[in-house]
Amino acid sequence: MAYTRGNSKQIIVGAAALFVSKTAAFDPENISPALPDFTSATYRDTLQDATSVVRNVGYTMNGLELQFQPDFGEVQVDQILDVAKLYKQGMQVNLNTAFAEATLENLLVAIAANSNDYDQDVKMQNPMKSGTTGSFADVLELKSGDIGECPVERGLVAIGPGTGDCAPTTAIERIYVAYRALSIENVTVSAKRDEASMFEVSFRLLPADNGSYGKIVDRLVLVS
C-alpha cells in the first residue's frame, strides 16, 4: 500500500456564522429553547429563519476560537524526580470572537446584560428621559446590577465549514452548539477615526446538568 501523506479534504478554512439565543441558555434535557430540526437546507439557512429562537449577530472579526483548558494535579513520589501521576482536577472552555456590527443588540450580549435593559422604538424628547412625545429611538440602559443577581447565560450556535469531500451537489458544515455561554471579559466600546468599532467578547462555557458543554456536528447536506 502506497504511503499517503494526508488528506487535504480534512483541512478547514473559512469563518463561521454565529447565532445567539434570544431568551436563555439551552437545556439539553428538556430541549429548550427548541432549536429547529435539520432539513434539506443547510442549518445556517434553517437558523436564519428561526427568528423566534436565535438571532444572527451578523459580521464577526478574527473568526471563532474554541479553547479547551484542562487543569491537571500532580502526584510526586520520592523515587522519581518527575511527577509519577497526573490527574484531572478542573476544566475550562472559552469561545472567543469579535462582533463587527456595533449594534446595541450585540452590545447587550457582549456585556451580558438582561434583555429587559434594551428597548426598541422608544419615544424620546431628551436623551435622559423617555416620554410620550419625541422621536423614536433604541435604548440600552447601562445598569450596575444588584446583589444576588443571576448572571445572564445564553445559548450559542455557530455554523462553519466542515471536513470531508464536498461534491458540487453537496455542502459540508460543522455545527458548534454551546448550551450555557456567559460573557466574562472586559468589553470596550470605541469611536475612532481610523478603526472600526467592534466588540471583542469572550464567552465562558459552562456544562449543563448532564455534564456536557455542547456538541460539535459535521453534517453533509445534499443541495440541488
In short:
6% of the residues lie in helices and 42% in strands. By secondary structure, the protein is mostly beta strands.
What topology does this entry show?
Blueprint: E1 17-21, H1 43-49, E2 54-56, E3 60-75, E4 85-99, H2 104-110, E5 118-126, E6 129-130, E7 135-140, E8 154-161, E9 170-183, E10 199-206, E11 214-222
Antiparallel strand pairs: 1-2, 1-8, 3-4, 4-10, 5-6, 5-7, 8-9, 9-10, 9-11
Write a structural description:
It contains two helices and eleven strands; from the N terminus they run βαβββαβββββββ. Strands 1, 2, 3, 4, 8, 9, 10 and 11 form an eight-stranded antiparallel β-sheet that branches. β8 (154-161) and β9 form a beta hairpin. The protein is mainly beta and 224 residues long. The chain folds into two domains: 13-73 and 83-112 and 153-222, Pnp Oxidase, Chain A (Roll), CATH 2.30.110; 117-150, no CATH class. The mean pLDDT is 90. The relative contact order is 0.22.
